[in-house]
Amino acid sequence: MACCHYYMLEEGGDAAFSINVSQLTFGPGCIAEAGDRARELGLKRVALFTDRKLAALPFVQTAQQSLRDAGVDCAVYSEVDVEPTDASFQAAARFAQEGRFDGFVSVGGGSVIDTCKAANLFTTHPADFTDYVNAPIGAGRPVPGPLKAHIACPTTSGTGSETTGVAVFDFVARKLKTGIASKHMIPTLALVDPDAAATLPGTVLAASGFDALSHALECYTCRPHTMRAKPAHASARPLYNGANPWSDNAAREALRLIGKYLVRAVGDASDAEARGQMMYAGALAGMAFGNGGCHLPHGMSYAVAGLVRDYRAPDYPHAHPMVPHGMAVILNAPSVYRFTASACPERHLEGAECLGADIRGATPADAGEVVAKRIIEMMQATRFPAGLAAVGYGEADLSALADGAFPQKRLLDNSPRPASKDELAELFRGAMRYW
Length: 435
Ligand SMILES: [Fe+2]
Prior knowledge:
The protein has 435 residues and is of the alpha/beta class. The protein has two domains: 4-17 and 201-430, Up-down Bundle (Dehydroquinate synthase-like, alpha domain), CATH 1.20.1090.10; 29-192, Rossmann fold, CATH 3.40.50. Helices cover 43% and strands 10% of the residues. The chain is built from 16 helices and eight strands. The strands form two sheets. The chain has a six-stranded parallel beta sheet, with helices on both faces. The protein has a two-stranded antiparallel ribbon with strand order 6-7. Helix 7 (245-267) runs parallel beside helix 12 (345-354), helix 11 (333-340) runs antiparallel to helix 13 and helix 12 runs parallel beside helix 13 (367-381). The longest helix has 23 residues, at 245-267. The protein is globular, with a radius of gyration of 20 Å. It starts with 22 loop residues before the first strand and ends in a 5-residue tail after the last helix. The mean pLDDT is 94.
């Protein structure tokens, strides 16, 4: 059980938390419900967002056919970048504005779903692009109200984007990754079809599965909502409440499933049970962090992804060097938990236990090492890189990495133990090589 003293109200803290989630349908073949569910939502003409590779595959065709069968007109947009940028978000928004759609369907990974959220936002509530972008990078203007209906159908098992109100992109001119976050951007309905994971290459499944692991464990160990400053108005309560009892439940179950199934799912493409359960775990972890938040491993990941020189991940057929998001996150995680465990050792131990670690006899002082060891075991079992050095970083990069992570204030503030810029550099140093 979670430690109840974690939610002791601090002076000026917020005693309340708010939960915002998508409707969710989970089950084999449920992608074929897209048309009927769109009709139920009153949609007559939708934009279907996907990427060029997925557009030719049966999964997207099933969604299109079901829309046709339901009498819903559908125009496909497949120009989604694997790592969306401010320019690709704006191109998608132009397509959506010109098409005069009354709703949206997205079929793809986090990049596709995030691009669809942005297109929906700028079509429904037009504004200058940076108006809604997270402050201090953008103006951080609140999204003024509900968006058009959006049915999100994930094809990877990790980002959880189908259940969250955030859309992440590369702000090219500023050379950093940031996002737009609002409860109004949470998709109306998530259709999570476990069959989607059947054909994912091992490295892709491992990276997205570790992303989900980190969503759940960061959410479980982040600063509690009772330490976050109470907003002046209830409507200003942030989407990311901080740790809260509702997110705790979803995070623990996600961790339990990931601890049980991730290694199996990566090692055996024919293990439909493991791959399907990873799809469910990804959605659960999304609902957890979508209301609780993430902290240092994600904040640091943006620097790891942004400063890449020549690393190319196996199974990622991109022309340009790239550290996949889930990889850029989990490579920081063992080093981070060794640092944050002293702030809430019980939660670190419980998280490790959910992941399958034997915590008998472990003391609070052991918590960081116990959780780091379990994550490292899972990285080894999935043949993941052994640390940041394996994706091209070294001692000379520590200060640039710390500089890159430090502006991610929204994530850094959610850490149970604050990290200065010098401490971030030390955390990157600790992440260079785990074995
Ligand atoms: Fe993530």
